[in-house]
Amino acid sequence: MEEHLVDWSRAQFALTAIYHWLFVPLTLGLGFIIAIMETIYVKTGDEFWKKTTKFWMTLFAINFAIGVATGIIMEFEFGTNWANYSWFVGDIFGAPLAVEGILAFFMESTFFAVMFFGWDKVSKGFHLLSTWLVAIGSNLSALWILVANGWMQYPVGMKFNPDTVRNEMDNFWDVLFSPVAISKFLHTITSGYVVASLFVVGISAWYLLKRREIEFAKKSIIVAASFGLITSIFITITGDESAHQVALKQPVKLAAMEGLYEGRTEAGIVAIGVLNPKKTLTNDEEPFLFEIEAPYALSLLGYHDINAFVPGLKDLVYGNEKYNIESAQSKMDKGKIAINALKEYKKAKKINDIENIRKYQEILEKNMKYFGYGHLKKPEDIIPPIPLTFYTFHLMVALGSWFLVLFALLLFFTLKREILNHKWLLISTVTSIPLGYIASEAGWIVAEVGRQPWAIQDLMPVGIALTDISTSNVKTTFFMFLFLFTALLIAEIKIMIGQIKIGPEGGH
Amino acid sequence: MFEDLTLLQLQQFWWIIISLLGGLFAFIMFVQGGQTLLGRISKGDETYKTMLINSLGRKWELGFTTLVLFGGALFAAFPLFYSTSFGGAYWVWMAILFCFIIQAVSYEYRKKPNNFLGKKVYEAFLFINGSLGVILLGVAIATFFSGSSFSVDENNFSHWHNSLRGLESLFSIFNLSLGIALFFLVRILGALYFINNIDNDTIRFRAIKSIKIDMPIFLIFFLVFLFLLFTKTGFAYDENLSIYVQKYKYLINFLEMPFVLGMFITGILMVIVAVFLTIHFKKTCCIKTGGLGVVLTVKALFLNVGLNNTSYYPSTYDLQSSLTIINSSGSHYTLTVMSYTALMVPFVLGYIFYVWYQMDKVKITKEEIEDPHAHNY
Fold first, then answer.
1. Which of A375, A409, A439 is the last residue of a domain?
2. Among residues of chain A, what percentage have pLDDT more than 90?
3. CA distances (Å), origin A233, targets A236, A408, A431, A434
4. Which residues fall within 8 angstroms of residue B226, CB to CB, at 6 or more apart?
5. Residue A304: left if φ>0, alpha if ψ -120 to 50, beta else—which one?
6. Are residues A122 and A200 part of one domain?
7. Residue A171: is it exposed, middle or buried by C-beta count within 10 angstroms (0-12/13-18/19+)?
8. For residues B139 and B182, is the Cβ–Cβ distance under 8 A?
9. A1 pLDDT tier (thresholds 50, 70, 90)
10. Burial (Cβ within 10 Å: 0-12, 13-18, ≥19) of residue A421
């Protein structure tokens, strides 16, 4: 493989995923907010709610279209840029994608047409059902793709087959109900609900600042702030479970998220901190230039026990006998044994040497857990980029906490009919729209950058997962995507702003 | 139930499903065909153009979804094809994807105020998707018969041996003939769909006129493709899974699988009948006959290339690297799980048809499009 191919392939995947993820959260949450509004309309028969539903639906459609446009590449990119990966785990990974297509995408696309064009063509009940089905369909599709992603973080339910040189699924339910997949799904979709709630309250706050669409804006705030508050509470619970799963299944990621070099019992969480750029794994520099720590919190969060030992990066790279943590070097040695055993197995198979076939199969099975480590060059390679993982994690948590407070304040003052008197709150609400997207993208960066260097945790590093292709091809498509998606994003934002300015009275 | 089937039976079952999806995707590409007819049928009249775009705009997502499902099903059922073809023929697939990316936003953004790129650009996007996108898809499918330059190593990792990364397939008359035939076929389907979906005499008249031009061109390219297909050497495998070349393989496949041949001929005849009834008897419902005809024809072509001991993705670089349904499939367990999921397909098709019927029982009219309260594209 050419030098830098892995960097460009990762950059392209990151670029397309970041763009796609700008639109998906809104679709996930706004679908439900619209469905709630339409339910109120059908229950009360009040035309105000129909108009309100239609306005938010218009914005939903603008966002949905670009979500679809940026989404198609995500599926095919596994084949185009990660061909070896596609073979090595396609037997497991492909299934959720296909199920997603059958169970979720058709539901979304079929009922989307009814939702937008069926107002006068189908009954009120059927229309409402369609709106709910679009929301459910988009969330179902999130389930399957996150099951697939969860499996990459914590591969379960499969066995390596040396004849085909791939992992083969042997328990679908283990894949579907993997604790990592479930917590990832719940945390991700609830983050989408928060982004959508911020979107609705933010735009409504803008109307209130402009002293227009007052009734519409206040009622939209009540629906969206309630939805946002409930889901913000839920997101802290799912976030706690996600962190617990990371602690158990991806301890290196957790250590990077917290900038934890030395393992500790009664470990605290850095509430606010600035990393020391001079700090390396082997020098004695302090890890932080400045930090405020919440004591015991990391042990509690990660292992649900304030006395638990949280391994640091040093423990995970160099090993820690006291806590029975194996060094990366030892895992690399075992990985090399596994890779070599596979080669010998293949040789024995060619000449039908039964004894050696059995011998090397046993060696392979014993060391398969560490197969991916055999491809690493040095033990330190198991560490993801620490600053990016650390800062994005803390940014996500800080912003998430602010959103919870914001929703509570908005609901309180709107119900007290005092919202118009609090200009500072309205301005904060408008500015929180981009903050929601930043928090959401930060969450993805924690999840995906934090698991580097693995394409599949412990089994396949990204450098091996690549398509055998020259770097110039990937560079070219990277810039093509950058150009096209940026142009489409500008179009989307301009259209969205245009529709918001028109308002619910004129938007269709 | 499915767990009792042999691996070979599951592989065949999944090839049949892939073939059906291929057929359904070809049918739903009437949307792409219709997109290339916007200028010809509207003749610059904005109301007509809006009617046409709204008619297509209520269906485009189904095509998009079918493409995604087609890819997902290939990934799960035949992952070695997924890794070999998508990673290998990089530029062809990337070009196809770009053609579809630009389609997805065009309907919604075209007429929205402040849309940054302007109406004409979004209409150009629709045309590119309907023309280049379709031709490239046809060319990509033709390589299932003509082969590509790749090898598969002992770890089942694939390597492509042409620096054009798939674009070389454009320099083959055989591949191009299918691509161009598909382009004109979906235009015919697009016109049949407009005739059925829009209640307007002018549009119907112009759509019929368009079919009269496109049908002979389609037949010429399709016959060229068929002639080359039936006279060409194909790629077969023996009981040891060793690949060899066989003269007239694809003709022989049809003769040895009379059911598939029957499906192929029935499909073609249904398209011809649909066109004939539309032109001469002014029937407005022939998208159903023609559409089903296309599903059957394309499905039969896929069955031809995948079944009867045939390599469905041959390698012209290293014959033994050629892909067959046997050496490229998922495991028995995965195919079994997927087969249970596939039981949902009739239910999904059921609700699609129900919704389609509900939405289309009232045809699109000028009045509806000109209604200021309607959600229009």
1. A375
2. 89
3. 5, 11, 21, 20
4. none
5. left
6. yes
7. middle
8. no
9. low
10. exposed
Q: Is residue A506 part of a domain?
A: no
Contact B342/A93, CB-based, under 8 Å? no
**Do B97 and A165 make contact, defined as CB atoms within 8 angstroms?**
no
CA of B129 vs chain A CAs: smallest distance (Å): 13
The Cα of B100 is separated from the nearest Cα of chain A by a number of Å equal to: 7
Residues A72, B100: C-beta atoms closer than 8 Å: yes
| Best residue of A19, A53, A70, A76 to probe chain B, by most B CBs closer than 10 Å | A76
Q: Does residue B376 sit within a domain?
A: no
Strand spans (E) along A2-58? none
Taking the C-alpha atoms of residue A172 and residue A487, their distance in angstroms, rounded to an integer, is 41
Residue B256 lies in a domain: yes
Closest CA to A312 of A373, A246, A251, A270: A251
In a domain, A278, yes or no: no
* Structure ipTM: 0.93
Cα–Cα dist B48/B50, whole Å: 5
- CB atoms A65 and B108 under 8 Å: yes
Asked if A117 lies within 8 A of B359 by C-beta distance, the reply is yes
The residues facing A274 across adjacent strands are A290
Residues of B in contact with A9 (CB under 8 A): none
pLDDT tens string, chain B, 377 residues long: the values are: 888 999 999 999 999 999 999 999 999 999 999 999 999 999 999 999 999 999 999 899 888 899 988 888 999 999 999 999 999 999 999 999 999 999 999 999 999 999 999 999 999 999 999 999 999 999 999 999 999 999 999 889 999 999 999 999 999 999 999 999 999 999 999 999 999 999 999 999 999 999 999 999 999 999 999 999 999 999 999 999 999 999 999 999 999 999 999 999 999 999 999 999 999 998 888 999 999 999 999 999 999 999 999 999 999 999 999 999 999 999 999 999 999 998 988 899 999 989 988 888 888 888 888 877 777 78
Question: What's the CA gap between A78 and A73, in Å, rounded?
Answer: 9
Q: Which domain holds residue A364?
A: 328-375
Name the domain count of chain A: 2
Q: Do A477 and B94 touch (CB under 8 A)?
A: yes
- Which of B351, B352, B359 lies at the smallest CB-CB distance from A121? B359
Note whether residue A279 is domain-resident.
no
Helical H segments across A416-460, by residue range: 423-449
Shortest CA gap A471–chain B (Å): 12
Task: Please check whether residue B150 is in contact with residue B317, taking contact to mean a CB–CB distance below 8 angstroms.
Answer: yes
pTM: predicted TM-score of the whole model, two decimal places: 0.93
Burial of B188 (0-12, 13-18, 19+ CB in 10 A): buried
- Residue pair A261/A274 in contact (Cβ under 8 Å)? The answer is no
Arithmetic mean of pLDDT over chain B: 94
Position B364 scores a pLDDT of 87
Q: Which residue is listed with tokens 């997603």?
A: A100
Contact B254, B304 (CB under 8 A): yes
Token readout for B276 is: 């004939």
The alpha-carbon gap from A105 to the nearest alpha carbon of chain B, in Å, equals 6
Residue A316: count of CB within 10 angstroms of its CB: 23
Total number of domains in chain B: 1
- Please check whether residues A76 and A173 belong to one and the same domain: yes
Residue A300 domain flag: no
What pLDDT, on the 0 to 100 scale, is given for residue A219?
A: 94
Residue type, A144: W
Query: How do residues A89-137 score in pLDDT, each as one tens digit?
Result: 889 988 888 888 888 888 998 999 899 888 888 999 999 999 999 999 9
> What digits encode the pLDDT tens for the residues B216-252?
999 999 999 999 999 999 999 999 999 999 999 999 9
- Beta carbons of A508 and B373 less than 8 Å apart: yes
Residue B103 domain boundaries? 7-369
Distant-in-sequence, close-in-space partners of A499: CB < 8 Å, separation ≥ 6: A58, A59, A62, A507, B112, B113
Q: Scan for tokens 């490239």, then name that residue.
A: B136
